[in-house]
Design brief:
Number of helices: 11
Strand content: 25-35%
Shape: globular
Largest sheet: 10 strands, antiparallel
Helix content: 10-25%
Distance between the termini: 67 Å
Radius of gyration: 27 Å
Length: 747
């Protein structure tokens, strides 16, 4: 009997027991949980357990795998409806359009966004997937699907993170026929939300120097496409989404309402489609971008799609962010929960640009060390004939005029000062004026006979090629082996164009989009394996390559080339929707900067101290008072960075909505909280509003310490109940005013 005609139901339930009652914002106390994946033989039901949400699916009578439920925790599997076949409404509304397939192929009368679309050599493109089998191991579940006629197999991969409230999905597509086929759309997952109307979509857009701008809008019938076609993650849209429904109090907000969220782990061309059907069904389909995509599979070959992580929060957008942040810190980043806190960094770019030399860098290093800096990074200009951005990229040898004895004397001095040494590199790029390009013009991405566009005077090496991959790994490995380098700032200062791979057969050339990213990840992983202490920052002209894919291979990301403090409040607010403070590189730089605005040095420091603190200012211009302020702020940051980088974030007042911006971080053990507050301007001598804190223990007492004496409340201790209900009053009276308050639990 064929699988599609079997008359049984297999329900697969991802179900979370309700989290135990706990004080707002505190991490859930450890408690016995059932196995992450359990098989109940009497009902042929799988239970996959997390703490925060339930997800259910089952095989219907026609053999298709149908979605059943995604939302707040369920405790009784018997409550779930069967995966039944719907009836046609009309010849224009077939039952397939009313059913919610877990991973729909493009075949039959299915007119919504497919998860998989293929083409056979004879032009046949029909694909209908039906359940075959399943396998569980630990926290992983694999469900095998197969086309109803041909040996085209799909394995759906599910990984449950029981303590984190996160589910990861991906797929493997295999050609088991005796003919080649071409994959035209390969998505990681389709996520079906509870039927209904009134959903709001949140997503992040922007451009260079204005990344991660938060957008919220109603979901209407039709499709909303979020995507990158640029070859990298992109500044324009980030691969994260949140869909929300409000409650009786109104729309979902920071700490209330239902929020379904997801983030795609891919650093190349990606696509997320948010679709509402005429039948009041909202679904999200995401994976590899279908634009300019064709991935041939010979008999026996397979294609793996990126992981698509998702979760559910009943505690609003703040609850969703905190789930993602903890998951990223402990399960995504290299080293996980055991990774070190991010050090205070100094980068020399704004002080010297391309005019680097040994004496000048040593002088900056000495000044940085006196401030308390722990990692000194030399930026662009140290290699080849790199005196401007028109030459030198690709020639990764030390410039002998700038560093006659190589980098060792500089690195030795940096280490003597008690700091680690880091180095800027841009491994994927080449200038036409370079020895590498003169020797290997064929190594760049190109269409023969067509122009080779140069952006920032550079072209892109085809990292999909094995010889280019080995060249890139080779020179980075040599640098890390020759010198005591702790940190690479890995930059990528342009997007793709003319994405040709002429050495491949025409049918295989568009594999470049996938193989490039895979080789990028491989090079980073090999480097880290060879040099276990090496750390990497992902930079792409700012936040052009930030996603859960690259974060599995790097330690932090460059948030934006825009380091102007007031602009950064909105950039960082959007960034924090999806990404943890620990990975958010944030610098203090000179003023005026970017948009001619000048803000006080304390304001700039406090904005940057909400992430991984760095300094990019020209220390040669610092006055004594500037240096004293910087040393004070760095000392404070080192006291609170475990809380900022590893704690729970509460966005109290938004820079999009309020004159005052306020963010609070609460340590995982609840022993410390930090409040940052910023005022853009004041009118009519009006006092700033009281700021009510969150995430504290009501019956605990907290000792209050102001960073600058702007705390109006003079009581040395206040209860958590008072702080969360009455709040703190801060003396923010001037334009671009700022303050911070440290709260230490005393009982």
């Amino acid at each position: 009997m064929r699988p599609h005609s079997r008359r049984f139901l297999l329900a697969v339930l991802l179900i979370a027991s309700a989290a135990p009652a706990r004080l707002c914002g505190q991490s859930p106390a450890a408690s016995p949980n059932p196995a992450a994946i359990r098989f109940i033989e009497s009902r042929k039901i799988w239970l996959l357990t997390t703490r925060e949400s339930s997800y259910a699916m089952g095989v219907g009578a026609n053999g298709t795998l149908e979605h059943l439920y995604w939302g707040a925790p369920l405790w009784r599997a018997d409550d779930l409806p069967a995966a039944s076949t719907a009836r046609d409404i009309s010849s224009f509304d077939p039952h397939q359009m009313l059913e919610n397939e877990e991973y729909p192929g493009w075949g039959g009368p299915r007119y919504y966004e497919p998860a998989l679309k293929i083409a056979r050599p004879d032009g046949n493109r029909d694909l209908v997937l039906a359940y075959v089998s399943h396998k569980t191991q630990g926290d992983d579940l694999d469900i095998a699907l197969k086309d109803i006629r041909d040996d085209i197999d799909v394995t759906l991969h599910y990984r449950v993170y029981p303590e984190y409230g996160i589910l990861a999905r991906s797929s493997t597509i295999r050609n088991r026929t005796n003919r080649p086929l071409t994959v035209e759309s390969a998505q990681s997952a389709t996520w079906n939300l509870p039927p209904g109307a009134g959903y709001q979509l949140s997503y992040l857009t922007g451009r260079w120097a204005a990344e991660t701008q938060l957008n919220r809008e109603p979901v209407h019938e039709g499709m909303k496409v979020l995507e990158s076609r640029k070859g990298h993650t992109s500044h324009n849209i980030n691969p994260w989404f949140a869909l929300s429904l409000g409650d009786a109090q109104g729309d979902a907000a920071e700490e209330n309402g239902r929020v379904w969220f997801g983030a795609l782990a891919w650093s190349g061309n990606w696509r997320i489609t948010v679709e509402q059907t005429p039948y009041r069904q909202v679904r999200v389909t995401g994976g590899l971008n279908t634009f300019d995509f064709a991935y041939p599979l010979k008999p026996g070959e397979s294609l793996d799609t990126p992981q698509f992580f998702a979760g559910f929060s009943a505690a609003g957008f703040g609850g969703a962010s905190r789930l993602l942040h903890r998951f990223e810190r402990e399960k995504i980043l290299p080293g996980g929960a055991g990774a070190r806190v991010r050090p205070v960094l100094y980068n020399s770019w704004e002080a010297t640009t391309f005019n680097v030399n040994e004496d000048g860098q040593k002088l900056l290093a000495e000044k940085a060390a006196k401030l308390g800096v722990e990692l000194f990074v030399m930026d662009d200009g140290w290699f080849g004939k790199r005196n401007n951005d028109r030459a030198g990229l690709g020639d990764w040898f030390v410039n002998p005029q700038k560093f006659p004895q190589g980098l060792k004397p500089l690195i030795d001095r940096v280490n003597q000062l008690g700091m680690d040494f880091g180095l800027w590199v841009e491994p994927e790029m080449v200038n036409a004026d370079s020895d590498l390009y003169r020797s290997h013009p064929d190594w760049v991405i190109n269409f023969p006979g067509r122009p080779r566009s140069e952006l920032r005077n550079q072209m892109i090496l085809n990292l999909a090629r094995s010889d280019v991959r080995e060249y890139v790994f080779g020179f980075l490995d040599k640098l890390a082996s020759t010198y005591n380098i702790r940190y690479f700032k890995w930059d990528m200062n342009r997007s793709f164009s003319e994405p040709g791979w002429p050495e491949m057969e025409p049918a295989d050339q568009r594999k470049l989009w996938v193989e490039y990213v895979r080789n990028l990840y491989e090079v980073m992983d090999r480097l880290r394996a060879r040099h276990p202490k090496l750390e990497i920052e992902s930079c792409s002209g700012g936040g052009g390559r930030v996603d859960l894919g690259i974060l599995q291979h790097v330690d932090e990301v460059w948030t934006s080339d825009n380091t102007e403090a007031f602009d950064r409040l909105r950039i960082q607010e959007g960034f924090s929707q999806a990404y943890a403070a620990k990975v958010m590189s944030a610098w203090v730089t000179d003023v005026p900067n970017m948009n001619t605005r000048s803000t006080p040095l304390q304001y700039r420091f406090l904005v940057a101290m909400q992430g991984a603190l760095g300094i990019g200012a020209n220390l040669n211009r610092f006055t004594e008072s500037d240096s004293a302020m910087a040393a004070k702020m760095i000392e404070i940051y080192k006291r609170i960075r475990h809380t900022v980088q590893g704690g729970n974030l509460y966005r109290l007042l938004s820079p999009r909505l309020d004159d005052v911006t306020a963010n609070e971080y609460v340590s995982n053990d609840g022993k410390q909280a930090v409040l940052f507050a910023f005022r853009h301007s004041q009118e009519y001598n009006t006092a700033a509003p009281a700021i009510r804190l969150r995430g504290l223990e009501e019956r605990a007492l907290y000792k209050l310490e102001s960073a600058d004496g702007k705390l109006v409340d003079k009581q040395p201790q206040l209860s958590g109940a008072y702080l969360m209900r009455a709040g703190l009053n801060l003396n923010l009276r001037g334009d671009f005013d700022s303050t911070a308050v440290i709260l230490d639990k005393v009982n």
